[in-house]
Design a protein that fits this description.
Layout lengths: L2 H6 L3 E3 L8 H8 L5 H10 L3 E2 L3 E3 L11 H15 L1 H9 L8 E6 L4 E5 L8 E5 L6 E5 L2 H10 L18 E3 L4
Parallel strand pairs: 1-8
Antiparallel strand pairs: 2-3, 2-8, 3-4, 4-5, 5-6, 6-7
Length: about 180
């Protein structure tokens, strides 16, 4: 099974149905071409919330609090003006804060980003604490990062000790 299939196999509650993402508008608004693996991830988990804590955004959501474009544009500004250590990390990778894509967030205001790369197979996941200097950088796709965090194989410096739950679940909300 792929990591995406393993995530999807976790116990789920909520609404069934197809997640509709507006990829064309999101790519135009953010000036990015998303990797196919990320689009598959959001087509399965857009609007979902893992362990009642980590929300995955959706491209084209009516609710601006879970809209990939809205959350990304706000977070790009935050990263460019308030986080010099993140700016330095990105600079070493040849990336500016204005290129980040915020794919999720937590109830504690932690931010989950994609860090682009010219090679779509080399995009990374950056998780930044809501307040403070802690961050995680994971070299790999979102679904692998999230699965490893939920399985306890990756211990985040950002997420609290009580995340993930012992038995991870997610709530589907594809129309949020």
């Amino acid at each position: 099974m792929t990591d995406l299939e393993l995530l999807a196999a976790l116990p789920a509650t909520g609404e069934v149905g197809t997640v509709i993402n507006d990829w064309e508008s999101a790519e135009a608004a953010l000036g990015v071409t998303f990797p196919a693996s990320f689009m598959r991830f959001l087509d399965v988990f857009g609007g979902a919330k893992f362990d009642d804590f980590l929300r995955v955004y959706r491209a084209g959501a009516n609710n601006e609090n879970v809209d990939l474009v809205t959350r990304t544009l706000i977070a790009r500004e935050t990263m460019a003006t308030t986080r010099p250590h993140i700016q330095e990390l990105l600079s070493r990778r040849g990336v500016a804060p204005a290129q980040l894509v915020r794919w999720g967030g937590t109830d504690n205001a932690d931010m989950c980003f994609l860090v682009p790369n010219a090679d779509a197979r080399k995009w990374a996941v950056l998780t930044v604490i809501g307040r403070g200097d802690e961050f995680d950088l994971f070299e790999g796709p979102v679904e692998t990062y999230l699965l490893r965090v939920l399985q306890g194989d990756v211990v985040s410096e950002v997420f609290p000790d009580d995340f993930p739950d012992e038995s991870s679940t997610y709530e589907r909300n594809p129309r949020i």
